[in-house]
Amino acid sequence: MLVQVAINGEKHEAEVEPRLLLVHLIRDILRLTGTHIGCDTTHCGACTVLLDGRAVKSCSVFAVQAHGKEIMTVEGLEQDGKLHPLQEGFMQEHGLQCGYCTPGMLMASYAFLKKNPQPDEEQIRRAISGNLCRCTGYVNIVKAIEYAAAKLRQGGS
Amino acid sequence: MAPKTSPEIGGMGHSVKRKEDPRFIRGKGTYVDDIQLPGMLYLDIVRSPFAHAKIKKIDPTKALAMPGVLAVITGQDLAKYNLHWMPTLMSDTQMVLPVEKVMYQAQEVAAVLATDRYKAADGVEAVEVEYEPLPVVVDPKKALEPGAPVLRTDKKDKKDNHIWHWEWGDKAATDRVFREAEVTVKQDIYLPRIHVASIETCGCIAHFDKVSGKLTVWMTTQAPHAIRTVFALVAGHVGLAEHKIRIISPDIGGGFGGKVPVYPGYVIAVAASVLTGKPVKWMEDRMENLQADSFARDYHITAELAAKKDGTLTALRIKTIADHGYADAAANPSKFPAGLFHICTGSYDFKAAHVEVDGVYTNKPPGGIAYRCSFRVTEAVHTIERMADLVAHQLGMDPAEFRLKNFIKPEQFPYKSALGWEYDSGNYAGALRKAMEKIGYAELRREQAEKRKRGELMGIGISSFTEIVGAGPSKHFDILGLKMFDSCEIRIHPTGKAIARFGTKSQGQGHETTYAQILAEELGIPAADIQVEEGDTDTAPYGLGTYASRSTPVAGAAGAMAARKIRDKARKIAAHLLEAAEEDLVWEPGKFSVKGAPNRAKTIQEIAFAAYTNHPQGMEAGLEAVSYYDPPNLTFPFGSYISVVDIDKGTGEVKVRRFVAVDDCGNIINPMIVEGQIHGGLTMGLAPALYEEISYDEHGNIQGGSFMDYLLPTAVETPRWETDKTCTPSPHHPLGAKGVGESATVGAPAAITNAVVDALWHLGVRHIDIPITPAKVWKLLREHGVTE
């Protein structure tokens, strides 16, 4: 089947089997490897991307379901050589260690901050509860998201 | 400790932002599964549904008829090259692929090679295997009973399921103290099977170049150099010599001990690449990772403490049954089948102790590796910290007061423990007092008393642990004979920038940053100007890898020693440039100056340039050094943790309300990174305390084989950790550092368990095995008359 998608603003098309998972289209065919696979069963969230602005776990979406839609991955966060405040926050607040869950965390928080620009700690923790991190213990991820929220409210990006 | 270097240099003590982050926050890391090579094939694995069964027939016909499926590899195929079995790191053997029978559910049975990962998975479904189920042995105690089915029928003279017996300490003296003891307590403690579950699973790409005869393996490994040697030793007879093997460990998505072993999938991928001459990728999925990769713990412990009526501890006695699954595939130093379990006297001044461990075979996956912990140290710490609380409560003493009474005192260091370790340094009371102050211990006890009157369940738990990390001195520590040194090689370029390579491999710890800081500290070259590389056996010096919190204690020390060699040569060059005697030169970070004439100085950058352009006659050009560091002792980080829990009587749910962690890892390289390591370690302490367990039913069916059942803590369950520190430098480490990555994992479970038991003690509860699930607590509450 032919799938046409726009990823990070760029149009792509590929001939795929109907069973191909979106994450494999993104990683193996379009070669954007920032989106990771940690469990194949939606539990870990490492594969989180935005599909028409909504955070989805791309290990559990078929590539053909993304036909005609816009996808945003971690590679799309930086604009014109400028880091997104979330990326900056993760670096400033030491919100990552091995980096494997990071792209999923960034995309889940990106979608969350669009909906809730002024979250409290508890709301942030709930928002990222579909994303597992084994290294950081989440404390600094929460701080990184707070950092980004504050910066975005000041019109940071 | 105030940093000695300026923020521009960024040596020890600066919270330098990580060099790794710019690529990771952009999705530009390179993990194994990110690599695609032209013509690459995919390997997938057929796994056993039975825990113990004869393989009567493997029929690949249907699989081979499927489009894209190129081969089905079986144990018979590997047997032609004698590669169907492989040695474990503990000198046991385990199957790569079985010829006669399978020994655990999810064991590798055959492998399918195909042109893409979907086709390989299709092939796996189509392979037909005929099994004849055999009696299953799940319980290690039953495995030891006479008449139990003997599992390792491959071992000719094996008549039972006992692997080894190991004991340590003075049995006679310990038994004598117990006979005369005023007070004794005894408790069975089970530390269940758990899994590190790094978010990146394990996998590799093996690429054998038939023309050059060179094998390159990109691999999720924490110990690339040792893996290269193991491959050469195991497959030397089929032509894989060590100079023709290159192991590359790229970015690693968490390791925690689970990426030390050699799994069958790696070996099959290598064999498939050698046979086809094409690159072969194998990536396990999460269920394979949880069901088949090496587990941690599974220790059935019976512990006894002897004490005086005044609360003075006198002796410790422990017997343990270690369930190793069907093979002892632990990753311990060779001489220590039970790892460093004999650190079990902990932070306390015992006169006598004796510990016994028996390894046992069962129908479960092999292992006995660490779960973010230095060789069985969590098992030891959990035991002694639970026992300390038991005896304190039994004597009616406050657990804090009890610990303060029994701690090894600062003036007793270096301290020789009853089980033979020489603790390098410590101030246990200092850490506990700081934790008590930070959490408001006395006030919490008052709150608890009031709540108890109202029938509310609140508990306070302490864990004052001693770690033992940085393996290790070559006299006692080796893995398969390879001594446990580690290494650093530094090259200073003419313009004063540097590249440094190490024998370890970061899996998220931030070595590119912290090692650069160590060298910046020693050489005064800004950390930003130092490129750190690890994980490529063709370029990095030989080392034993990153696990057991050994990177800073061993490789970090090698970095400091190599840097000091460079500084020695730099001094000679500076003396030449300044026309001064070497002994008249004064070093400060980044430059040598002439004593009494501070303006007559040469920076390290000027010296580096001179090393290539104007070096003294008779001296070799260049500014390079290498160090293989053999630590004189292990290091002994420690800490005191206090947790406060509230228990819901209706549901049995335990909520960790507060958790204060005071850690002492000696001198700190990067405070930001140390704090991050502690946050992560605490969360991997919380996890087995409350959530994680891999259990089996009587047929050997795994009960926790996916993230549906194996519960990793999310941000919602994880408390907001509160951290603090004391600083007791290691007297023998060149930087006074100790290692910190695992302290929190080791110390935290006991603090949480002790808090839960503390909340329930007045009801008659004496012990709960982890994980402390709501169901367990709910049942205990009902058994003890709480009905709300």
Characterization of the model:
The complex is a heterodimer of chains A (157) and B (788). With 157 residues, chain A is of the alpha+beta class. Chain A has two domains: 75 residues, Roll (Ubiquitin-like (UB roll)), CATH 3.10.20; 69 residues, [2Fe-2S]-binding domain (DNA polymerase, domain 1). In chain A, 33% of the residues lie in helices and 15% in strands. Chain A has five helices and five strands, in the order ββαβββαααα. Chain A has a five-stranded mixed beta sheet, with helices on both faces. In chain A, helix 2 packs across helix 5. Among the domains of chain B are: 152 residues, 2-Layer Sandwich (Aldehyde Oxidoreductase, domain 4), CATH 3.30.365.10; 187 residues, Aldehyde Oxidoreductase, domain 4 (2-Layer Sandwich), CATH 3.30.365. Chain B is built from 19 helices and 33 strands. In chain B, strand 11 and strand 12 form a beta hairpin. In chain B, helix 10 packs parallel to helix 18, helix 15 packs across helix 16 and helix 17 packs across helix 18. Chain B is globular and about 85 Å long. The mean pLDDT of chain B is 97.
